[in-house]
């Protein structure tokens, strides 16, 4: 939803980085708030693209491959993921292998999603915003409230 993308834009320093949103169409809120991003890419997993940061909500079936793909090229990545996918052996092994650090932004309430037809999807799992970067000094979990983002706090 737009609130999540707005939270990312307002709370994560992206600066003038070249953004790629490989799994997003022009209707995506990522693309709407980051209009200069490269998006709607069908061969992201096979072809090399020039970018500084990948911001997307990838298909769940590709989550580990997308992380590995970005880390292979030493690129930052911001993804919306199910919480249980992050707290997994595979995720921790990837982070250790590439020596990156992460920030997890965990909303107080579940994130709902809007499909391309504008229909709201309220999944039965909790999603978080995962930001992986080689520039972070330590891992961090930040809890936040989409309805009142000024009350955010780190753990």
Q: Please, could you describe this protein's structure?
A:
The chain is of the alpha/beta class and 155 residues long. The protein contains five helices and ten strands; from the N terminus they run αβαββαβααββββββ. The chain has helices at residues 2-11, 29-33, 63-72, 83-86, 89-98, and strands at 19-21, 38-39, 53-56, 76-82, 101-107, 113-114, 120-121, 127-133, 140-144, 153-154. The strands form two sheets. It has an eight-stranded mixed sheet. The protein has a two-stranded antiparallel sheet with strand order 6-7. Strand 6 (113-114) and strand 7 form a beta hairpin. Helix 3 (63-72) runs parallel beside helix 5. The longest helix has 10 residues, at 2-11. 29% of the residues are buried.
Structural class call reads alpha/beta
Strand content bin: 25-35%
**What's the number of extended β-strand segments?**
10
**General shape:** globular
**Radius of gyration of CA atoms, rounded to a whole number:** 15 Å
> What's the number of helices?
5
Largest sheet: 8 strands, mixed
């Amino acid at each position: 939803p737009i609130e999540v993308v707005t939270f990312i834009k307002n709370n994560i320093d992206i600066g003038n980085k070249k953004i790629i949103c490989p799994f997003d169409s022009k209707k995506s809120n990522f693309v709407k708030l980051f209009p200069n991003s490269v998006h709607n890419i069908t061969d992201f997993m096979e072809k090399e693209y020039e970018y500084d940061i990948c911001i997307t909500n990838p298909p769940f079936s590709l989550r580990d491959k997308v992380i590995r793909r970005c880390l292979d090229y030493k690129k930052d990545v911001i993804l919306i993921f199910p919480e249980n996918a992050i707290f997994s052996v595979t995720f921790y092994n990837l982070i250790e292998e590439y020596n990156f650090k992460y920030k997890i932004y965990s909303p107080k309430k579940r994130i709902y999603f809007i499909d391309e037809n504008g229909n709201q999807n309220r999944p039965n799992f909790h999603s978080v915003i995962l930001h992986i970067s080689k520039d972070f000094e330590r891992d961090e979990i930040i809890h936040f409230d989409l309805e009142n983002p000024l009350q955010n706090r780190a753990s």
